Q: What sequence folds into this?
């Protein structure tokens, strides 16, 4: 297996492990809520009405977790389909949203959050979708690593001139967060991934911003 294949396998394994952990949390909450409903039904003896509000809260919690579980599996499924074609036409906005979603658990572990600032238009690009997601995920990890305390990383897909781009903004309250250092874990891996995509990094005038620039040839 080549170095590239090893890297892709490690990425998919890591994301799969994270999402299956999330699914276990979903199932645990569903089980707990279903148990509460069962306890209320078993305790019901007809002499006083069921606690309607508590019953509805438990049912609503189950419904919310089922929706969350479906979203987790949907994003994992789309990631898996990135392997179907080496080069594919994708909507950069959707890829950014997927990567942000898959990063959420890693961000929470550091008490951080990841947000997406929606693009104002579709951004179709032809690219190796798996490698693009790996690069954006690695860039996100570099940002999270540099946050000195709980903060937020916001991602936005757009264009820098003619080039499709993905902007990363790191914020901790009113504090300025610097562009991730080249010594940050994963920065070297990010450079390799971007090179394989024909992409690059551009630092912004603002210390907390940088952009991943994709080649114009990849745009449609």
A:
């Amino acid at each position: 297996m080549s170095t590239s294949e090893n890297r892709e396998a490690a990425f998919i394994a890591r994301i799969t492990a994270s999402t299956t952990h999330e699914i276990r949390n979903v199932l645990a909450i569903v089980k707990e809520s279903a148990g509460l409903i069962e306890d209320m039904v078993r305790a019901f003896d007809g002499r006083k009405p069921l606690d309607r509000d508590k019953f509805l809260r438990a049912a609503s919690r189950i419904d919310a977790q089922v929706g969350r579980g479906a979203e987790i599996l949907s994003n994992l499924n789309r990631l898996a389909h990135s392997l179907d074609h080496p080069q594919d036409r994708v909507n950069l906005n959707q890829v950014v949203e997927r990567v942000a979603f898959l990063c959420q658990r890693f961000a929470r572990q550091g008490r951080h959050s990841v947000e997406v600032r929606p693009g104002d238009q579709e951004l179709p690009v032809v690219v190796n979708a798996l490698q693009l997601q790996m690069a954006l995920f690695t860039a996100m990890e570099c940002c999270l690593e540099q946050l000195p305390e709980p903060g937020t990383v916001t991602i936005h897909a757009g264009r820098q001139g003619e080039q499709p781009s993905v902007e990363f903004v790191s914020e901790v309250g009113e504090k300025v967060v610097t562009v991730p250092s080249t010594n940050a874990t994963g920065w070297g891996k990010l450079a390799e991934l971007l090179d394989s995509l024909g992409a690059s990094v551009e630092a912004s005038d603002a210390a907390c911003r940088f952009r991943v620039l994709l080649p114009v040839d990849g745009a449609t």
Observations:
- Residues 21 and 178 are 32 Å apart (CA to CA).
- The two ends are 32 Å apart (CA to CA).
